[in-house]
Amino acid sequence: MKLVVILGPTASGKTQLAVALAKRINGAIISADSRQVYRDMNLGTGKDLEAYGDIPYHLIDVVDAGETYHVTRYREDVYHALDTIKEAGKQPILCGGTGLYIQSIVQGFTYDVVPVNATRRTVLESSTIELLRERLQQLPMPPDFVPDTSTRKRLIRAIEIAEWCQHHPLPLASRPALEATIFGINPPVAIRRQRITARLQQRLDMGLLDEVKALLHNGVSPDRLVYYGLEYKYAVQYLLGELDEETFFARLNTEIHRFAKRQMTYFRKMEKDGLHIHWLAHGTIDEMASEILKNDN
Asked: For ATP, which residues are the binding ones (predicted)?
């Protein structure tokens, strides 16, 4: 059962496209979003549950807010979802914008997909090469990871990988990569920017700040909420009185635009890593669904 993947930056229309395609091919959708797994975090993560209608979906609302979720568990959950979809006789569609999660499914997990930590790199770059080697020797080495220490840059990358693996259990090697056809959706920047700003205002009107207040009231700490992404980070700052309303909206809006650019950078990295992404021509949802059907082979 070949997997169909739909990826793209935030506010690009991925969910609507996946639903339209699922209706045509008797599909079921698996979310590839690292935040939509959390219950009671709907507006801040953009679940848009009403968009699914009667289309089955998986890996949304699977853990409580406040818990930790990582790529290892995601891979296992995807395989369980695929078993359920296969038993139902449906076509699986993986849809989302978390590039690391998608890449771990369609290419398998390699240390190359460990994300860059720009903040940590800034600290490491101030160290001498001797201190970098000493730091690396102090870290437990992940299985089958042979660090390249031939240059300063590679030493820093090795430390980055080893430190990341301390907090993110690795996927089981017994899980192979899945054969997939990958489609990308990326509206023109002007349209994307317009959608991001309009959607942010809509979510605020729908009660995003009330959602964050409820999470805080239910015991999710401010520090933990910041971990869950931009909407929660800036909402917490606003609710704590650290930002006024105008600054809150302006900063959050700007950061979401930057986040969309970072998503596109990661998708380009996936292509450099050997994954072919068929970028869909910008058009209506029905036009893009038709293009997927013509090119899914």
From this structure: 8-15
Query: CA-CA distance, 20 to 155, in Å (whole number)?
Result: 46
Sign of CA dihedral 70, 184, 113, 85: positive
Please give the single-letter amino acid code of residue 290: S
153 known ligand binder: no
Instruction: Confirm or deny that 8 is annotated as ligand binding.
Output: yes
The dihedral over CA atoms of 219, 224, 230, 236, expressed in degrees to the nearest 10, equals: 50
Looking at CATH, the fold of the domain delimited by 3-109+171-295 is given as Rossmann fold (3.40.50)
Residue 195 has φ and ψ, to the nearest 5°, of -65, -40
pLDDT, tens digit (0-9, with 9 covering 90-100), for 188-245: 999 999 999 999 999 999 999 999 999 999 999 998 888 888 999 999 999 999 999 9
pLDDT tens sequence across 261-291: 999 999 998 998 889 999 999 999 999 999 9
Tokens read off for 250: 């302006």
Predicted TM-score (pTM) of this structure:
0.81
Would you say 284 is a known binding-site residue? no
The domains of the chain are located at 3-109+171-295, 112-167
CA 164 to chain centre: 17
Q: Is residue 9 marked as binding?
A: yes
Is 128 one of the annotated binding-site residues? no
